[in-house]
Amino acid sequence: MSTLITEEYRQMQAALHQNPNYGVASVQYAPTVAEILKQVGSTELLDYGAGKGRLGETLQTLMLNPPQIRHYEPSRPEWSATPQPAPFVTCIDVLEHIEPELLDNVLDDLRRVTLDRGFFTVHTGPAVKILPDGRNAHLIQEPASWWLPKFMSRFELKVFQSMPQGFWIVVQRKADTFPAEEPAAAPNPYNAGILRRVLKSSIFKK
Fold it and tell me: Whole-angstrom Cα distance, residue 171 to residue 120?
């Protein structure tokens, strides 16, 4: 398996996660994720770069029938094992923190674990936090026009939503990336009503 994070950076992230306010940004996206989960009918979710696991905790309170939730977080030993694929994958407040030379490896791994749909966010500007070595916590600061080709070479883009400091997307696994014995899921387009409810969720009221 390709390297997803260097040991030095993993240790740095583990230290940062001792801060109770670090690694909790996914909470604000939980209402949006809940709406999309209802639409696509996924019953299993992999939170890729789960931080403190707050997304799963929040979904448990928001949804009558929340999905089974698995976590991947390399800075936490209990969640650091190579993640197994899931029908629905979230990657929230993660990609801008990836070491630039390892970004393609991480995106390829996201493609590997996403069996059907994915919800990914990207912050395109600097973070407030500075790393112990003096770097900005957002190691990658690039516009959507830089990111989108990377996503679209690996996934089908279903939804793009710009935000003041970045964007989020919903993607679907490309049909030609399914194993031969596993047929691609039938198209399940997002209708306007669902998108209106998603865009009215709490993240857009700030």
Answer: 8
